[in-house]
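Incident log, support desk, overnight shift.

02:14 A customer reports that sequence design results differ from what the structure should imply. Their input is reproduced verbatim below. On-call engineer (initials T.W.) acknowledged and began investigating.
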């Protein structure tokens, strides 16, 4: 703890406490360090725009399909109508939906890039996310350039029901066409990646890259806690502590001889992805 201060002496707008080691981090320094704790290397969540800036070559990103917005075909209402939820998420995040897509260069290599934004309704996958990813895959196929998708999502968007679930099949079909054409697809998994996103395109990359400490599981934390409580009440089975994180999953997959995520720290992500795309491009040219 710097300067020997007490916790109450650190204003929130200037300092952030690391949830892993408890270190008080000066916000400006944290941003300069790519939102990674300088003491324990905890990777804080990163918004879609900062993620793009951190990953791509400077000035190379050109956004595509930015005008797409969600409709309300089911007229869904829970505690509030779906259009009101969309409007609130747009105001909070500054984005029109939970994914930003475009063309860019990484390490001098042209790519199609899609980055999900967890700030927008938990990065949930609805019709707009599905359409943006599918169009990005189609552009990658037409231009014969690599596709990179950065996932951060709680899964399919419940307010769009079956329409959201249909996006999984649509995206997977587009990725299958890339695979048939021999065009590389790199999946980057960040904290958290769960649900239908993990069950579909996030797990289908020719190479799967994960950030250290990323939460990776089919069901989210809220569902896990609810299910653990139900099991404890009904059959007295104690909840298992701990959640699957990228580091542990990589070790477990390696031990089971399965396809595993390559855990890459944020500070070297651009260089690593650039090397991967360069190598893949030379093999498929």
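02:41 Re-run completed on a clean worker. Output:
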């Amino acid at each position: 703890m710097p300067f020997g201060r007490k916790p109450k002496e650190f204003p929130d707008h200037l300092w952030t406490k690391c949830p892993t080691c408890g270190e008080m981090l000066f916000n400006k320094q944290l941003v300069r360090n790519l939102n990674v704790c300088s003491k324990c290397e905890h990777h804080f969540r990163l918004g879609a725009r900062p993620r793009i800036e951190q990953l791509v070559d400077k000035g190379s990103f050109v956004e595509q399909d930015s005008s797409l917005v969600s409709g309300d075909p089911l007229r869904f209402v829970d505690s509030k109508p779906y259009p009101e939820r969309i409007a609130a998420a747009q105001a909070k995040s500054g984005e029109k939906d939970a994914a930003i897509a475009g063309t860019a260069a990484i390490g001098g290599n042209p790519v199609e890039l899609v980055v999900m934004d967890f700030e927008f309704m938990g990065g949930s996958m609805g019709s707009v996310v599905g359409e943006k990813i599918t169009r990005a895959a189609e552009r990658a196929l037409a231009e014969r350039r690599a596709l990179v998708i950065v996932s951060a999502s709680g899964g399919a968007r419940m307010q769009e029901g079956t329409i959201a679930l249909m996006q999984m099949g649509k995206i997977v079909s587009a990725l299958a066409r890339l695979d048939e054409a021999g065009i590389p697809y790199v999946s980057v998994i960040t904290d958290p990646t769960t649900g239908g996103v993990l069950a579909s395109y996030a797990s289908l990359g020719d190479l799967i890259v994960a950030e250290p400490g990323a939460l990776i599981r089919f069901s989210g934390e809220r569902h896990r806690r609810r299910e653990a409580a139900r099991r404890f009440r009904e059959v007295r089975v104690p909840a298992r502590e701990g959640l699957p994180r990228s580091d542990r999953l990589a070790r477990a997959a390696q031990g089971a001889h399965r396809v595993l995520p390559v855990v890459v720290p944020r500070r070297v992500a651009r260089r690593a992805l650039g090397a991967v795309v360069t190598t893949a491009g030379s093999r498929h040219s």
